[in-house]
Amino acid sequence: MKQDIDAASIDRIKKFVLDKTGILLNEQKINMVLQKLNRQINEGKLKDLNHFYYNLTTNEKVFQEFINFLTVNETYFFREFEQLKAFAEVILPEVVEFKRKRGENRIKIWVAGCATGDEAYTISIILNEFLEEDINVEIFASDIDTEALKIAETGIYELRNVRFVHHQYLNVYFDITKDGKFKVRDEIRRNVKFIYHNLVDFSKYFIFSKSDFIFCRNVLIYFGDEQRKKVIDRMYEILNCGGYLFLGHSESVGRLSDKFCVRRINDYFFYYKECDCGW
């Protein structure tokens, strides 16, 4: 009987997390969670899984600590370099030229699921390298993991995070701290604003409206299909005309949305919002 009750409790935990955050707890995640919870039960910190479910759904601190535990923050500077190269050398100049013709000189970017900020600062470096000074830049970077956001705000990283940064960029855009870490310089940090945001909280998407680029790479792979589709649809709505959505190399909007136009550059697919003007 206890096994049935535990299975029911696990299902309730999975459903609550999926509905609240979009994150789908697969078998590997569930095993990881159970190891942690069983340890707490053995230590007398929890009575059982029902007790945890009650705490999870009624205590915001317990919920946030659990989400921080669940989220995957495997990231580093200049991840998926070839995609970023196509962005910097092909797509970015095209969008800037298009906006100039419309009398606009502002680029707005949303990095969704930014983790510890490596990707957001990478994009800031790229913009600093490739944009002319008269272009105004706004980069919003959001995540649901509060601990990851704390690291992002400091802009201080271990060697493993910057292992693929070209030595020239390391010298120009980073300072080495006394304990041998790498701190992003202020000229790159000041373009990035970090925000706590749950991707399925659609009431907050107005913050990111009129974005020219949305980077949501290797984030939605952890979501359920229904939640993934809703996020993709909302991202389409807030993109500017001619704006681009960037996903991870193994991701696609194919079966989730037919609204985006698709463009291939080398081995990467890029998704953009077509304009009435034919852009």
From TrEMBL:
Pfam families the UniProt entry points to: CheR
GO BP field: methylation
Keywords: Methyltransferase, S-adenosyl-L-methionine, Transferase
Alphabetical list of SMART domains matching this protein: MeTrc
UniProt source species: Caldicellulosiruptor owensensis (strain ATCC 700167 / DSM 13100 / OL)
Reaction catalysis annotation: L-glutamyl-[protein] + S-adenosyl-L-methionine = [protein]-L-glutamate 5-O-methyl ester + S-adenosyl-L-homocysteine
Enzyme Commission numbers on file: 2.1.1.80
GO MF annotations, alphabetized: protein-glutamate O-methyltransferase activity
Domain CheR-type methyltransferase: 1-276
Gene3D superfamilies, per database record: Chemotaxis receptor methyltransferase CheR, N-terminal domain, Vaccinia Virus protein VP39
UniProt name for this protein: protein-glutamate O-methyltransferase
InterPro entries: Bact_Chemotaxis_MeTrfase (IPR050903), CheR_C (IPR022642), CheR_MeTrfase (IPR000780), CheR_N_sf (IPR036804), SAM-dependent_MTases_sf (IPR029063)
